[in-house]
Amino acid sequence: MARPPCRRRLLPAHLDTLAGRILALLIGMSLVLILGGGLILQDERKDRFEERNLAYLIDDVTTLVWLLQDASTDERARVIERFSRTGDQIDVTAAPSLGLNWPWRHAVEHVIHHKLRSALGIEDRESLRVRVEIDERRGDTEAKRPEPPPDVHPSHQDNRPTAGIDGRLQDREETQPSPSMDPRQLRENIRTHDVKAIVICARLRDGDWVNFRTTRIDQPPPWAGKTLQLLGLLLVAAIGTGLFIARKTARSMADLAEAAHRFGHGEDPPRLREHGPREVRETIRAINQMQERLHKHIQDRSRLLAAVSHDLRTPITILRLRAEYIDDTDMREKTLATLEEMEAILSATLGFARDEAADEAARSTDLAALVQTLVDDHVDLGGEVAYEGPERLVARCRPVSLKRAISNLIDNAVKYGGRVRVTVREEPGSRVIQIDDAGPGIPDAQIEKVFEPFFRLEASRSRETGGTGLGLAVARTIVHAHGGMLRLTNRPEGGLRVSIRLPEQEK
């Protein structure tokens, strides 16, 4: 039978297994979930951070202004140094670094100005100035210009804690967002116009101006180490869980494949333990039941065949005794010869049934030594048999039954072919035993028929030369029970070639 063409392997070797594919699937799904969740979390963090940044900006500027209001020069220097540690640029000058705010260039300026006036209680609009610096490379940076907000009374103060010059915290009312822009609109406005910095100038009571410039407006914080560690731990946990599930699932499939392989090669493996997923358990249960039914069928057939062969011995013995009383010598000899042939057939059949019922276990065997022993035995009996092959070649087989099959084949070769050469060699994935003789060969049309039980050729391999017609059938049955193949071919130079190919199995 021709072997199916090999498909080109598109996946790596470790992904060609069930465990590898399950693990790859789980890892891929985990990565997609973790990365997707991380992107969603990053976007939410950015939204929250932008809102929080604006709130922190209002708090920082409010606290800074309150601390600098009545502070001395030295105290102001210390306050500015502390607030500048975050990267903000702060100084106190006699004149503001910004001009008047009106008209607003950017909606964010309006919102910050409105919130700071409420937080600081500034009535004079010109005492607080806000400017948003835009990245001009973004193209159109013209912002929405809302109507100027109504003046806010100093009592409209937020409740965020602000520190006074004496270090005590003071509570203010919650700053209400500008009615002209909600937080989402504000975030979109900042993103759309690519705000890179915000500059705020506030006048102190002594007439000086505090100038505050920050870039902490649209920069989400980097992933924290704990967050990355948690994501890594989740990935490791997913890989570990996937590896455990994949190995458990693949183990049950591997056990099933091994048992089926051994059973297909003539062994009788023990009943498989039903484990793994439900579908695998049902498959294992079906394999166990099939193995039990098939084993019982073979045993019943072998016992029936042995019983019939044994029971026929009694009438054959009676016929032999009665044949002795036949007066016609020629008839008596022919009858006795026929009875002897029948007894030989029964002996061969009984031996075959006995071998099947023996249920021999497979084991590692030196195949080269087994064949050399058979060759030496035939040489001792006067046969012209030669061995060609390695000194040692180990194969897993049932040595008693295989020895009988090879012996039958060598017997036929010696009997009908004269000179015989037995070759043993190793090929990729198999062990090959080749028996060549110098006989007349077999007609091509009858090569398959000679494997049928009790079939004998009419030429030199006829009844007169002996044989029961079971030798080749028994040999082929034994080879097939090993998962192997037995073929007969006529050699171009003359003679018959018998090839036994046994698959390589795990030791």
From TrEMBL:
Stretches with biased composition (Basic and acidic residues): 135-159
HAMP domain span: 247-299
Region (Disordered): 135-166
Pfam families: HAMP (PF00672), HATPase_c (PF02518), HisKA (PF00512)
Membrane topology: Multi-pass membrane protein
GO MF entries: ATP binding; phosphorelay sensor kinase activity
Histidine kinase domain ranges (all copies): 307-506
Entry keywords, A to Z: ATP-binding, Cell inner membrane, Cell membrane, Kinase, Membrane, Nucleotide-binding, Phosphoprotein, Transferase, Transmembrane, Transmembrane helix, Two-component regulatory system
The protein's name in its UniProt record: histidine kinase
Subcellular location: Cell inner membrane
Domain of life: Bacteria
